[in-house]
């Protein structure tokens, strides 16, 4: 199995690219550790397409110039599409939150939006905007590790009300501590095929996971106003990150 990298740059900028390059740390690793040479072949993801790619040139870092490994892209290879899932994940303790981003990426979600909920701790809410770049790096590394052909979109943290107003997924599911009977699996089973189709490439399913302490009654009311289906994962109390991974796994089985 060939090593796979996600290109830092590619051309042309739209459609199926024919050339791509790795720069910075990726290029330095390929050149210094893997001893890359022109003519070697790797798998390269560029603009969402997976290609067999041949190294055209290798440039080591020097002075103000970053390392670069340039590729000529050959035939497109078959690849799995991302799950059409938008995960709305309330911000909680950063180490647990980042673990959830890593695993959600590995499982294949298309988009993650960090939510500033009423019960998100104030210091986490204040610090979350500066953490967004780190969260995107985690998603990038997890995409490479899991051999994804894309990187999930990690949105900037936003308040719940704004996120609900913007949501366009036809099927919207809230994991709610107050729901006792309707399970996530049951809600997905009764959803129509029409609801599961994507809209202009956008996720067809939105999943909302609350913070430690859960959603407030006012927030649950907001979800109801925006036509979210309230479901349960069962009788046990799960940590937020555990609930997120369990929900994605259940949803992926129904969306396959």
Textual characterization of the structure:
This protein is α/β, with parallel strands linked by helices. The protein folds into two domains: 73 residues, Hypothetical PUA domain-like, domain 1 (Ribosomal Protein L25, Chain P), CATH 2.40.240.20; 173 residues, 3-Layer(aba) Sandwich (Alpha/beta knot). It is built from eight helices and 13 strands. Strands 7, 8, 9, 10, 11, 12 and 13 form a seven-stranded parallel beta sheet that branches. β2 and β3 form a beta hairpin. The longest helix has 24 residues. It starts with a strand and ends with a helix. About 3% of the residues have low confidence.
Unreliable spans are 192-198
Shape: elongated
CATH superfamily of the largest domain: SPOUT methyltransferase, trefoil knot domain
Which assembly state applies to the chains in this document? Answer: single chain
| CATH fold label of the largest domain | Alpha/beta knot
Question: Architecture of the largest domain, according to CATH?
Answer: 3-Layer(aba) Sandwich
Return the string of H and E elements.
EEEHEEEEHEHEEHEHHEHEH
Please describe the biggest sheet, giving its number of strands, its sense, and whether it closes into a barrel.
7 strands, parallel
Helix % is 25-40%
Itemize the secondary structure elements and their pairings.
Layout (H helix, E strand, L loop, with lengths): L3 E3 L2 E3 L7 E5 H10 L7 E6 L2 E11 L8 E9 L6 E8 L3 H14 L1 E8 L5 H24 L7 E2 L3 E2 H7 L4 E5 L8 H7 L2 H4 L8 E5 L7 H9 L3 E3 L8 H16 L1
Parallel strand pairs: 1-4, 7-8, 7-12, 8-9, 8-10, 11-12, 11-13
Antiparallel strand pairs: 2-3, 3-6, 4-5, 5-6
